[in-house]
Specification:
This protein is of the alpha/beta class. Helix content is about 55%, strand content about 5%. Helix 6 runs parallel beside helix 9 and helix 14 packs across helix 17. The two termini are about 25 Å apart.
């Protein structure tokens, strides 16, 4: 949302007076920022976005065009979404203002009598509907005169005074005189009181729908009545379920063409019970299928098999290419029993879980364990002392040392990598005059941490461990990315990671051998699948690379995929006979556009475009290359999950809670897919000292091991961390930092850049 002043400047009449023919003199309506007068007339306006010339109706008709209101004019297809929302809010505010004058309602400085009655039921829901308010008001507007056009100065001044305190916060984006800072502070406190009283977790503010909710309420304007308890758990939930099911059905239609991966996400709730969440992935998106408690059945491969069979039947055996679980022996056994029963798809282990296993085993080595213990001692000291934490964030430009990844042990090594990137900054911090003059430098814990910071052996060992962890974290990032299916790249990525580790140790086998043994063992015994080998072979960006070389493992994996995914023998013969055309790059495979597309297109898309002459081979390649090799999961809502799986339940209420879980996860997956397609970061804002970081198994990095000597702790004087961004930034040098801060003081982090190495 644009800041109030910036928005007002954008809509100000003064901004447009310099543009000849853009707006009439002294025009104040915000619609003129998006239209151009044709031949100097107010009744003939050209839209800036779609260039449609609107005849008659003046600026009101243009605003209806921009807001998407059908009736008098066709909606604009090119208007930016933020502009569309702003115009809708503007129209909604004006309609409610007019209705309020017609009803003769009175407003005071500190209160506003709602226009709507406090009644429940269908009539109440119609009254509360933003669309109903807008539609009703706009229809009246079409029969009357435009409110703003020709309004006298006195009427305009009266309009500003009509709703002094009831103006919604989002309406501040329309005109800076509508909402003072005091009113906005009151709105902030209203939101805060609701969250505190209802016990809503702070990370709910990271939800995409949090601001969307505020904008929708602001579009209705003063007097909006929030949906009731019964509406939320009744018809609104039912409507959301239908929307989610509609999206699932849309994705389901693509499974027959691209195939899909069934993903079983196993997690343990706060009571120690095992919960299984089932997801289905395809290139168009991931859907949440269902959730079930597995504590009573996970000790038997046969009972797990029965559960897996029910999921396969729900998805459709012919649609499934890959069935994914973690590497727990009982789940691995159940997965292989499932494959033996159907013989038309493969079982594989979750890629993220396997990379995490590699990092876990590396972390068990004595030298690595000692290094991580020292690194944790540093963060424990920093994150349990407000003055030290403020000093650190000042020098790092508001960036944190602790970083969260998608798995526990990946978070450990990512945090170690973050610490190494701040090596110079941290060294300067613990040798600065401010540190030396502080009471912390005289304490036993402070002396211990300072000694670690200036120890060259600590940083040398840190560099050595990162030679191993960095390539593995790169692979983890690849398989966690949803921009394109990852299965076509995992085999090559693992080979490159091992080669990178070897080169980082200057080919000294005694140095890298212990680490490669761990990686190879987990790769061969847990991770590798025929699907990975076949996808490696069928990925044109890899296959046509001069460095590509085929091996028995790759060849055997390809043949296994042909036999399992295409049970018909004649089809198998046809596929194997057509592979030569792909290998030799003849026919459509040799087109100039196909040659260029090898690198730029997703592998499955490339096959769908250039293999039409070989439909059986094309279908096989598209189905294999459209899969993922890692479970795409959502953050689990334990309070909701525990209510769903509680033994004390009513049958009807249990069905309602299942629907709630279904909507909850699919909304998160939908937004995650949307953000990923736009290339935006989807990791929410967090503070490492908060409970969310502790819930992410990072408590040993932030927990307080001992009481701090003589320190009066207070979270209120701790500066907030800088929000994470996908844009790289720079670390401040020691010359840019001012060490003369009070031990209880703070700094202003505005305008400070972050760390470029993260």
């Amino acid at each position: 949302m644009v800041e109030t002043r910036e928005f007002f400047d954008a809509f100000s009449a003064n901004q447009h007076q310099d543009d000849q023919g853009t707006a009439p003199p002294r025009a104040t309506d915000p619609g003129w920022a998006h239209g151009i007068m044709v031949n100097g007339g107010r009744q003939k306006i050209k839209c800036k976005y779609c260039h449609k010339v609107i005849l008659g109706g003046g600026i009101s008709r243009l605003k209806q065009h921009l807001a998407g209101e059908r009736g008098n004019v066709a909606p604009c297809e090119e208007v930016p979404e933020d502009v569309k929302v702003q115009i809708q809010q503007h129209l909604g505010f004006k309609v409610l203002e007019k209705l309020k004058r017609q009803k003769g309602l009175k407003s005071s400085k500190n209160s506003l009598v709602p226009y709507y009655q406090d009644t429940e039921g269908e009539a109440d829901d119609v009254e509360r509907s933003p669309k109903a308010v807008l539609a009703r008001g706009i229809n009246r507007k079409r029969r009357g005169k435009e409110i703003d056009e020709g309004t006298s100065y006195k009427k305009k001044r009266h309009k500003k005074q009509l709703f002094p305190t009831a103006t919604p916060v989002a309406q501040a984006c329309i005109h800076n005189s509508f909402a003072s800072q005091e009113i906005m502070d009151q709105a902030d406190m209203a939101v805060a009181r609701f969250m505190y009283e209802a016990g809503v977790p702070f990370n709910a503010a990271n939800s995409y729908y949090f601001q969307q909710m505020a904008d929708a309420i602001a579009a209705v304007g003063p007097g909006y009545k929030m949906p009731s308890y019964h509406s939320l758990r009744g018809k609104l939930l039912n409507r959301s379920v239908q929307d989610a099911r509609g999206l699932c059905e849309e994705l389901r239609r693509s499974w027959e063409v691209t195939g899909c991966s069934v993903m079983v996400d196993r997690c343990t709730d706060r009571t120690g019970h095992t919960v299984l969440n089932f997801y289905v992935y395809c290139p168009k998106g991931t859907v949440f299928l269902k959730s079930t408690y597995a504590s009573e059945i996970e000790n038997s491969a046969e009972t797990l098999l029965s559960l897996f069979v029910s999921v396969v039947q729900e998805v459709g055996p012919k649609n499934i290419v890959n069935f994914m679980t973690d590497t727990a022996p009982i789940y691995k056994a159940a997965g292989k029993l499932l494959v033996d029963r159907y013989k038309t798809f493969f079982w594989s282990a979750c890629g993220a879980h396997c990379i995490d296993l590699m990092l876990e085993e590396i972390g068990k080595r004595d030298e690595v364990k000692e290094l991580l213990a020292k690194a944790k001692r540093i963060t424990q000291f920093i994150y349990n002392n407000n003055w030290v934490l403020n000093l650190m964030r000042k020098r790092t430009g508001g960036r944190d040392i602790i970083q969260l990844a998608i798995t526990r042990f990946a978070s450990n090594f990512l945090t170690l990598q973050s610490m190494a990137s701040f090596k110079d900054v941290l060294h300067q911090m613990f040798t600065s005059a401010a540190w030396m003059q502080s009471t912390f430098s005289k304490q036993r814990s402070g002396i211990e941490v300072a000694e670690i910071m200036v120890d060259p052996n600590f940083w040398s060992m840190c560099d050595q461990v990162l030679k191993v962890s960095k390539p593995l974290l790169t692979v983890l990032h690849l398989i966690d990315c949803e921009e394109r299916p990852s299965i076509g790249y995992i085999y090559d990525a693992m080979e490159k990671a091992k080669k990178s580790i070897t080169m980082a140790f200057d080919d000294k086998e005694s140095d890298y051998s212990p680490y490669l043994k761990i990686i190879d063992c987990i790769w061969k015994e847990e991770f590798h699948s025929p699907l990975h080998a076949a996808a490696y072979y069928l990925n044109p960006s890899i296959f046509y690379n001069p460095s590509f070389s085929i091996s028995k493992v790759i060849q055997k994996g390809l043949l296994d995929c042909i036999e399992s995914l295409e049970p018909n023998l004649s089809t198998q013969v046809m596929i194997t006979s057509h592979i030569n055309y792909y290998e030799e790059a003849v026919g459509d495979f040799s087109r100039p556009v196909a040659l260029r597309g090898r690198e730029s297109l997703a592998p499955a898309t490339w096959w769908s475009l250039y293999a039409a002459d070989y439909p059986d081979l094309q279908r096989l390649a598209v189905r294999i290359l459209s899969q993922t090799c890692s479970i795409i999961r959502c953050e689990t809502s334990w309070s909701m999950s525990e209510r769903v799986h509680s033994k004390k339940r009513n049958r009807l209420e249990h069905q309602r809670l299942n629907d709630l879980i279904f909507v909850h996860y699919n909304l998160r997956l939908q937004k995650k897919r949307s953000e990923s397609s736009k290339g935006r970061s989807i990791r929410g804002t967090f503070d490492p000292t908060c409970l969310e970081a502790i819930d992410a198994d990072m408590e040993d990095w932030v927990e307080d091991p001992i009481a701090i000597e003589g320190e009066d702790l207070s979270w209120m004087v701790v500066n907030v961390p800088r929000e994470r961004s996908s844009v790289s930034a720079k670390v401040k040098t020691v010359d840019d930092c001012n060490d003369s801060i009070d031990e209880r003081g703070s700094y202003d982090s505005k305008g400070i850049d972050g760390n470029s190495d993260l």
